[in-house]
Write a structure and sequence with these properties.
By secondary structure, the protein is α+β, with helices and mostly antiparallel strands. It contains four helices and ten strands, in the order αββββαβββαββαβ. Helices cover 34% and strands 23% of the residues. Strands 7-6-10-8-9 form a five-stranded mixed sheet, with helices on one face. Strand 3 and strand 4 form a beta hairpin. The radius of gyration is 33 Å and the shape is elongated.
């Protein structure tokens, strides 16, 4: 019996030391894990905030633009969307939503507001342009020009009334160069009602260099060059 006592005490000390070791290390591991998770969440929040702040607020979207669309809270890969001929996007949950004429930042803010009405408590929307089409759309020029018809607006082009007339072969002999009319329909989703009509004196632009009066055309504009009432 006496010979077994030292062996028992030795085993007891070993077990006691193991228990103390576990009691000391477990809380350290627990709080270390909690800290690591908190740091990870902070990194995710910072990354999301940087992506939101980086959304473009300069370029205005056009028909044919290809966009990447993502709702961070869904934890899914971005979806590819295209601005349709009507200037809309087909958005999950919402359906058709006007996009043409807005920047990515304006679009993301509008989508966030719409999604949080019925579908999300909080929605972080990321929108970016993946690809731009070769053409932003067409304008139509009719009347007293040598080659009436439609003209493409290149994606990186600023097409003005005078440039459109030159591309259409210039004026015919009896064109009224002082009264060129441009009819513009409101963009899809715009709060504006009715068409706008502008009158441009192109003769002053060509003859006197008054380029400040040279209206910048938008896709869908109709340019009409009338003929003079008196021909001489």
């Amino acid at each position: 019996m006496n010979c077994c006592l030292p062996l028992f005490l030795s085993s007891f000390r070993l077990v006691f030391l193991k228990i103390c070791f576990v009691l000391v290390l477990c809380p350290i591991a627990f709080f270390s894990t909690r800290l690591s998770a908190a740091e990870t969440n902070d990194l995710v929040d910072v990354n999301t905030a940087s992506r939101v702040s980086a959304i473009d607020d300069k370029y205005k979207l056009n028909i044919g633009d290809q966009l990447s669309f993502q709702i961070i809270e869904d934890e899914e890969d971005p979806k590819t969307l295209t601005v349709t001929d009507s200037g809309d996007l087909q958005i999950p949950y919402i359906g058709r939503f006007p996009a043409a004429g807005k920047t990515c930042k304006e679009l993301a803010a509008g989508l966030k507001q719409e999604l949080e009405k019925n579908y999300y408590y909080h929605a972080t929307v990321i929108v970016a342009v993946d690809a731009k089409p070769r053409s932003r759309g067409k304008i139509y020029i009719v009347g007293a020009v040598r080659t009436p018809g439609s003209l493409e607006i290149e994606s990186d082009e600023t097409l003005t009334v005078s440039r459109a007339i030159l591309r259409a072969g210039s004026f015919t002999e009896f064109a009224d160069e002082k009264s060129v009319r441009i009819t513009r329909s409101p963009a899809s989703g715009s709060k504006e009602e009715g068409k706008k009509i502008f009158t441009v004196n192109v003769a002053q632009i060509f003859e006197k260099g008054k380029t400040e009066n040279d209206l910048v055309l938008q896709p869908g504009d109709l340019v009409f060059v009338p003929e003079r009432m008196i021909r001489f």
